[in-house]
Automatic annotation (TrEMBL):
GO terms for molecular function: glutamine synthetase activity. Gene3D superfamilies: 1.20.120.1560, Glutamine synthetase/guanido kinase, catalytic domain (3.30.590.10). It comes from Mycoemilia scoparia. GO terms for biological process: glutamine biosynthetic process. Pfam families: Gln-synt_C, Gln-synt_C-ter, GSIII_N. This is Glutamine synthetase. Residues 198-645 form the GS catalytic domain. The lineage of its organism: Eukaryota, Fungi, Fungi incertae sedis, Zoopagomycota, Kickxellomycotina. Residues 92-193 form the GS beta-grasp domain. It comes from the Eukaryota. Belongs to the glutamine synthetase family.
């Protein structure tokens, strides 16, 4: 790799012909509305109802609602119907699509084509047939030992099962050659039934929360007759785009997902002009392409915009039931990778691909709804008298306060550690922001006094709990102000009728964080039910005073977790410590809570989402992944320094030395060259020293890893020794980059990575 290669990439980024993208039109040339293509690659319940006899379809619906298991006849009928539907649309293969604990999805393709052998008097007769049975639809058998299992499966114990998740629709995706593949959303379990994936625990947590909330609603509002409660999720997905010709010249981006060396350009995000700015035309084409593919797969992308940092963008969907929303988020990430490639771009989902500028998150907007279509976190017109809303709200506050370490653990990774607390990311201290008005509602109930009037005198009040903003311009209409403001420094904020879990990392699956949140809220709801039943006593129903007594208890109890201020300040660190909130700065520290007796008891016995074996497995996997990520970064930066950075420094030093010598030979002052040469030599020596220290640290880590199999020890050792050595090496490398003449620097710089999209 040389400067010439880098120069060619720079030229290609501005001279390459853009990929053509045309939105589909009707045969007569009129545009196709998005609603007309939405879900065309999804085998919907409507499609199933058309294809199946009514009794068979009714049987499937009963199974889907959890009323009975799926019998063979029904499974075979569904399999036949979906095969015909898929093959009519070009599908030649099917796959069980699942979410192992690798941070991505997995799939193994099987052909519909089968060979049927008939024995005739003349010999064997082989007939090719396209077949898909109910048993093939229901389950498949990937090699469980080849996925992370945390010690639950030995290498020689290979069997595992993927099982169709009937709550998530089947769909087809086109292949590169005009054929398609039928995707069957699935869970992944071991031979003994333990969850090896991210989705199984999410589905368990959804059911547990539904049971707890329906019991609570039956207690406080028996007339409502709610039979089922479900969680909704909207995942705002942030990401960076980089020119692909630049990306391929950066080994660190290709291998680790982030830049391990590099200086910020003089202008990056300081002027705050990129956020919500005009989307670059090249990016707009890619985003439109993404939206088209997502619409066909029933993924309801709603918004798109520039994010804070140059080269950073965001897309966000309409809210859906959480398990489907997770599937759709992972699909969106997968499609974005594919679409970016078509447009000569690369999508970066790492939480901190560039040092010193805004990182990327996956803001998970979470709420709870009933089968009657009611959002239980909707404050309504008068939240102070809406006891159902207040109790559900307090259940979430109690959950976050009681199980904050678990929520911190759920968003922990080596990549998210770089982001939490930096630029726009929320701090690693878990707290809840409610806003002044909602806080006043709780305070007034606790203190048994009237609620303060939040309407500003010159504004007109409105009947949605907020106020109208009069803009004092006749041509502009008055606008309603939401009940609460937004706080970007809060990791968990109430935003009108939902909570925004802002701390989730951009590249991780939302499954585990949402499963932990569901579990914590289930536990909190159980506590509140117990207290409500105690105050009711022998009475046939709860009085308002009974409800208020429990409400006041939990308002007082959850005060420490409520914080309305700036989460970035040092004062908040001090205040959080006074309140007794856990301050967990690193992932390995967070991982330890997964085996803490209090949290093990809640997750296994109280809400029954995990088994102890599953928790130990996940603890091992999280720690092992953390250590491996850092070790891979170390090996990558070692290679880059040795093969790219130091050679560039040596070459430039040689040029300077020859220039200084030539000037001296003709009696010309060479002091500028000598001064630069001396400074360059010092920096190169510092870099070599840092590099040698990194090599030593990695060798010591490898020896320690061989001597001790404890993955938790490995993670902490990688954090305390390897990561500082990587950073020290980077500091010297970045100083060298600032000294070496641009024409000798072999890899694309931040200016080219960030500002050529």
């Amino acid at each position: 790799m040389s400067y010439d290669t880098r120069k060619e990439a720079i030229i290609a980024s501005v001279t390459r012909k853009d990929t053509e993208y045309m939105y589909p039109k009707k045969p007569d040339g009129r545009p196709i509305y998005p609603s007309e293509i939405y879900g065309e690659r999804v085998f919907t319940l409507k499609d199933m109802a058309k294809a199946l006899p009514k009794p068979v379809f009714a049987s499937f619906l009963k199974q889907r609602r959890g009323h009975h298991s799926l019998d063979k006849a029904t499974a075979d009928a569904v399999a036949h119907a979906v095969r015909c539907w898929a093959m009519d649309r070009g599908a030649t293969h099917f796959t069980h699509w699942f979410q192992p604990q690798t941070g991505t999805t997995a799939e193994k393709h099987d052909a519909f084509l089968s060979l049927i052998t008939n024995f005739t008097p003349g010999g064997e007769e082989v007939t090719p047939m396209d077949m898909f049975s109910g048993s093939q639809l229901l389950q498949s058998e990937p090699d469980a030992s080849s996925f992370p299992s945390g010690g639950m499966r030995s290498t020689f114990e290979a069997r595992g099962y993927t099982i169709w998740d009937t709550s998530s629709p089947l769909f087809i995706q086109p292949g590169p050659n005009g054929t398609s593949v039928l995707y069957i959303p699935s869970v992944f379990i071991s031979y003994n039934g333990e969850a090896l994936d991210e989705k199984t625990v999410l589905l368990r947590s959804n059911e547990a929360l539904s049971r707890a909330c329906t019991q609570l609603l039956a207690l406080i509002e028996p007339q409502a007759r709610v039979n089922h409660v479900y969680t909704t999720l909207g995942t705002e997905q942030e990401f960076f785009l980089v020119d692909r010709s630049m990306y391929v010249l950066r080994p660190d981006l290709k291998i680790t997902g982030r830049t391990l060396i590099g200086n910020l350009p003089p202008r990056h995000q300081q002027l705050e002009d990129h956020y919500f700015g005009k989307i670059p035309s090249r990016v707009m084409r890619a985003m439109s392409d993404l939206e088209l593919e997502c619409a066909r797969l029933g993924v309801p992308l709603k918004t798109r915009h520039n994010e804070v940092a140059p080269g950073q963008f965001e897309v966000a969907p309409i809210f859906e039931e959480s398990s489907v929303a997770v599937d759709h988020n992972l699909l969106t990430m997968s499609i974005l990778h594919r679409v970016a490639h078509r447009h000569n771009l690369r999508a970066l989902f790492h939480e901190k691909p560039y040092k010193g500028i805004n990182g990327s998150g996956k803001h998970c907007n979470w709420s709870v709804c009933t089968d009657r279509g009611e959002n239980l976190l909707d404050p309504t017109i008068r939240p102070e008298s809406n006891y159902r809303f207040i109790i559900i709200l307090l259940a979430v506050l109690h959950a976050v306060q009681e199980y904050a370490p678990l929520l911190r653990l759920a968003i922990s990774s080596s990549s998210n550690d770089h982001r939490l607390g930096a630029q726009e990311a929320p701090p690693s201290i878990i707290s809840i922001f409610l806003g002044d008005q909602l806080s006043e509602v709780l305070d007034s109930i606790e203190e048994n006094r009237p609620i303060k009037n939040f309407s500003v005198p010159e504004f007109k009040t409105i009947s949605v709990g907020g106020t109208v903003l009069d803009l004092k311009v006749a041509a502009l209409p008055n606008i309603s102000r939401d009940l609460t403001d937004r706080n970007r420094t809060s990791p968990f904020a109430f935003t009108g009728n939902k909570f925004e879990f802002r701390a989730v990392g951009s590249k991780q699956s939302p499954s585990f964080p949402v499963a932990i949140l569901n579990s914590a809220v289930t536990s909190a709801v159980s506590d509140i039910i117990q207290d409500l039943e105690a105050v009711r006593g022998d009475k046939p129903y709860l009085t308002d005073e009974d409800k208020l007594s429990v409400i006041r208890k939990y308002i007082t109890l959850t005060k420490p977790i409520r914080f309305e201020g700036d989460g970035y300040t040092n004062d908040w660190q001090t205040e959080a410590e006074k309140r007794g909130l856990p301050i967990i700065k690193t992932s390995p520290e967070a991982f330890d809570y997964l085996l803490d007796a209090k949290y093990v008891n809640m997750l296994t016995k109280k809400v029954n989402i995990f088994t102890e074996a599953e928790l130990r497995s996940r603890f091992y996997i999280l720690n092992e992944r953390y250590a491996k990520d850092i070790l891979i970064e170390a090996e990558t930066i070692k290679s880059m320094i040795n093969q790219l950075v130091l050679p560039a420094g040596f070459e430039y030093r040689k040029v300077l030395a020859e220039a200084a010598s030539a000037l001296k030979s003709v009696d010309v002052d060479n002091s500028p060259e000598v001064a630069t040469l001396n400074k360059l030599t010092t920096v190169i020596k510092n870099l070599q020293s840092a590099y040698n220290k990194l090599v030593e640290v990695v060798e010591n880590f490898n020896h320690a890893e061989e001597a001790d199999e404890n993955s938790s020890v490995h993670a902490k050792l990688a954090l305390s020794t390897i990561r500082p050595a990587i950073e020290a090496t980077r500091v010297s490398s970045d100083e060298l980059e600032s000294l070496v003449a641009d024409k000798y620097w072999p890899i694309p710089k931040y200016t080219e990575l960030l500002l050529t999209v």
